[in-house]
Amino acid sequence: MTEAPARHAAPPPDIALAERLFAELAARTAARRGVTRASYGPGEQVAHDILAREGAALGLAVATDAARNLYLTLPGTGAGPGLIVGSHLDSVPLGGNYDGAAGVLMGLAVAAGLRAAGQAPPRDLTVMAIRAEESTWFAASYIGSRAAFGRLAAGELDGVCRAGDGMALGQAVAAAGGDPAALARGEARLDPARIAAFVEPHIEQGPVLEDRGLPVGIVTGIRGAFRHRAALCLGAYAHSGATPRAGRRDALRAVARLVVAMDAMWERRAAAGEDLTVTFGEIATDPDEAAFSKVAGRVAFTLDVRSDSDMTLAAVRGELAGLASAIAAAEGVRLDLGPETGTAPAAMDPGVTAALAAAAAAAGVPALAMPCGAGHDAAVFSQMGVPTGMLFVRNAHGSHNPDEAMAMADFAAAARVLAGFCLSPPCPR
Ligand SMILES: [Zn+2]
């Protein structure tokens, strides 16, 4: 007869430590408004130095890799794949103090709590501070986490340059003490087979938890996207009073019909339970040629479609093509969607999400299962085959701005969930 492993009560995470470090981060990376922590720049380095200092003070093993990602490890009682809790420490220019940093400090608060209680986790617990997640600096996604798996392309190291000072990524990595040559060779620090689970705690960047009055969210999947950043509708300019309805080739009316048709499609699919967002973020007539008394002959627009399901994205792509050609024929215009870019949806691991939900229930923290609409390093871990989860903390006013507002009580609630998870991770591999 086998006994179920005893479920230890998790010791309280060190919230005071996190609070002190949030204050130090805010003070030492302060900008004109909010904080600025450029990827591989001075602000991000300050944050990494603070975390390395605190990890050493807690007696955690401190290590970095060729991309200068930081690893703070509390040894576990058992051998075998360990747990990684992490997020990024860079920020957008004039950004908020919590986006990214909250995830790293939550991991540290949990490790510090275990340390203070003299308790070891069942497996190694590594707090990971990931480099260069905010693609406003280098126009490449998930630089640090991809580098940790040896998945950065050599061309990116030479060819992608930082906004502002134009420094090439490889040079910036070297300036931070990293080894771009090792990255170009694809040397990996992390082996997916040696990671039992990765959890990224993060502030929620939308209003869902705020609206529902819940402190914590457990992410079910990260939405993928397809995007048209340079779509164009070409009709014919004509006199607004002199051109009959039948003879018009109105580019603006055609795009408007596409917006309405796509919105109706979204409503229909959402009602059927599909996860989807459809956003026409920019629509512009030509300022030089358009006028109030002219039928618009040219309209540029963008379209961003997101879903946590590959099947939904594919179906919407097909439906969009059909709508565009039908509307173009009916309106006598040319509708050219232009090049498509995008990312694949990333599934969260059902075992990890179930273990997070169980930890939330055990801690008495109400949690909402919800999709994640923005990209995160967790997507890379998931795509590398690591069982991955994300824990959201309620946050008002969105993110990427200095007004993001996370209550420390909500951070503490999420940290209790994370602590419980770290003591009872899902079936270790
Ligand atoms: Zn972030």
| Structural Rg | 24 Å
Cα shape = elongated
- Note the beta-strand portion: 15-25%
- What integer is the average pLDDT? 94
Which terms summarize this structure?
6-stranded antiparallel beta sheet; 2 domains; Alpha-Beta Plaits; 429 residues; 13 helices; binds zinc ion; 9-stranded mixed beta sheet; Aminopeptidase; alpha+beta
What does it look like?
There is one protein chain. This protein is α+β, with helices and mostly antiparallel strands and 429 residues long. It has 2 domains: 15-223 and 346-423, Zn peptidases (Aminopeptidase); 224-343, Alpha-Beta Plaits. The protein has 13 helices and 17 strands. The strands form 3 sheets. Strands 1, 2, 3, 4, 5, 6, 15, 16 and 17 form a 9-stranded mixed beta sheet that branches. Strands 7, 9, 10, 12, 13 and 14 form a 6-stranded antiparallel beta sheet that branches. α3 (101-116) links the parallel β3 and β4. α1 (15-28) runs antiparallel to α2, α3 (101-116) packs across α13 and α11 (350-363) crosses α13. It starts with 14 loop residues before the first helix and ends in a 6-residue tail after the last helix. It binds zinc ion. Zinc ion (ZN) binds at residues 88, 99-100, 133, 202. Zinc ion (ZN) is lined by residues 88, 99-100, 133, 202.
How does the SSE layout of this entry go?
Elements lengths: L14 H14 L13 H16 L3 E4 L5 E5 L7 E7 L12 H16 L8 E6 L12 H6 L5 H6 L9 H7 L4 H5 L10 E9 L4 H5 L3 E7 L1 E11 L3 E2 L11 H21 L5 E3 L3 E3 L8 E2 L2 E10 L2 H22 L2 E3 L3 E4 L2 E2 L2 H14 L3 E6 L5 H6 L4 E6 L14 H16 L6
The protein binds zinc ion.
Zinc ion (ZN) binds next to loops.
